[in-house]
Structures are given as structure tokens and as C-alpha cells.
Automatic annotation (TrEMBL):
One Pfam family recorded for the sequence: SKI
Gene Ontology MF, one: kinase activity
Binding sites annotated in the UniProt record for substrate: 47, 71, 93, 150
Protein's gene: aroK
EC number: 2.7.1.71
Protein name, UniProt field: Shikimate kinase
UniProt xrefs under Gene3D superfamilies: P-loop containing nucleotide triphosphate hydrolases
Family: Belongs to the shikimate kinase family.
Entry keyword set: Amino-acid biosynthesis, Aromatic amino acid biosynthesis, ATP-binding, Cytoplasm, Kinase, Magnesium, Metal-binding, Nucleotide-binding, Transferase
Principal EC category: transferase
Length: 188
């Protein structure tokens, strides 16, 4: 069965897109590229796809149109990507806030929560000033507030992998091991 054969047919877990979820700064894009290469799959970065669709940067979308318009565009782009052939997909940290996106992820992807402690994430996100949800805010306080809202959604992921302590290659190894265990259990 093709992973995009029909919206009514369930997609076997081995044929589903691998969607990386988690807070900004956990490494979804960087690790996702490496994971895709390791698995021989295409890679898509949700934020880059949103920018291409909107013809402006994520920061400009937030500044000119607001977060609600960004989230609406994000939902449309992720739905399109989740209906495309199997890939590794790095989602934006807030993608799980949209109920329709959560439903699409559940139906069409194996979700992987890339989990890292907030101190690690805060140190990573302070390196660049490209995160609209952190502008003018203390990164640690902003991340704590995001975690409070988002962690219950991330916790519903099919696979949870702690990625804070090691290099990107170690994160890829951990995700591959967790996916193999998930696929083995699903096949049983």
C-alpha cells in the first residue's frame, strides 16, 4: 500500500513520515537532516517550507501578520507535507498546538519527541536572535511557559528520545534505535 494511497486507508507505521517534535532549540532541523540521510529519506523543515509558501521569513510573518496567521499557514503547510510521500519532517515547536495538525500527525506520521532539559535549550536558543517568541523576553522564562503548554502534547509522541547530552550524531543514533524498537513492537 502506498503511504499516500487514500485519506481513508490507514498508513502502516513503517511507511509513515517521521515527524520530529519538540521545543525550539532541541535540534529538530539539524538532527532531522542527518536522520533523513541515515534512513535514505527526503527531509523537509516546516519553517523553511512556511517561509517559501509565504514569501517571507518566520520573523516577518510574526511581525507583519501575527502568530495566529503564522499558525494557520503552518497548519496548511504541514498538512501538505504530511500528505506527501514519506520523509523526515522537522516541525515547528508550536505545531502541536493546532488540533488539526495533531490529528494529521497521529494519522500520517510516526512522531518523535526530541526532549532536552530547559537549561540546554535556553543556552542554544540564545545563540541566535531569530526566534520571534523569545524577542524581548527572558529565554528561560519563555521556554518554561512554552513547556508548560506544549509538553502534554509532545508526551503523546509515538517515540520519546532524550537529546540534550550528546552530539547530533548521538541524537540520530538514539532516534534510530527508538524507531526500530517502535516498528518492531508495531509489527508484533
Amino acid at each position: 500500500m502506498s503511504p499516500v494511497a487514500s485519506d481513508d486507508e490507514p498508513i502502516p507505521v513503517h511507511d509513515r513520515t517521521i515527524a520530529l517534535v519538540g521545543l525550539m532549540g532541541v535540534g529538530k532541523s539539524t538532527v532531522g537532516r542527518r536522520l533523513a540521510k541515515r534512513l535514505g529519506l527526503p527531509f523537509a523543515d516546516g519553517d523553511i517550507e512556511i517561509e517559501a509558501a509565504a514569501g517571507m521569513t518566520v520573523s516577518d510573518i510574526f511581525a507583519q501578520l501575527g502568530e495566529s496567521e503564522f499558525r494557520a499557514g503552518e497548519a496548511r503547510v504541514l498538512k501538505r507535507l504530511l500528505h506527501a510521500p514519506r520523509m523526515v519532517l522537522a516541525t515547528g515547536g508550536g505545531a502541536v498546538l493546532n488540533p488539526e495538525t495533531r490529528a494529521e500527525l497521529k494519522a500520517r506520521a510516526v512522531t518523535v519527541w526530541m526532549r532536552a532539559d530547559l537549561e540546554t535549550v535556553a543556552s542554544r536558543v540564545q545563540r541566535r536572535d531569530t526566534r520571534p517568541l523569545l524577542r524581548g523576553r527572558d529565554p528561560m522564562e519563555a521556554l518554561k511557559a512554552m513547556a508548560e503548554v506544549r509538553y502534554p502534547f509532545y508526551a503523546c509522541a509515538d517515540v520519546i528520545v532524550d537529546v540534550a547530552s550528546g552530539a547530533h550524531g548521538e541524537a540520530v543514533d538514539g532516534i534510530v534505535r527508538a524507531l526500530e524498537a517502535y516498528w518492531t513492537e508495531a509489527a508484533a
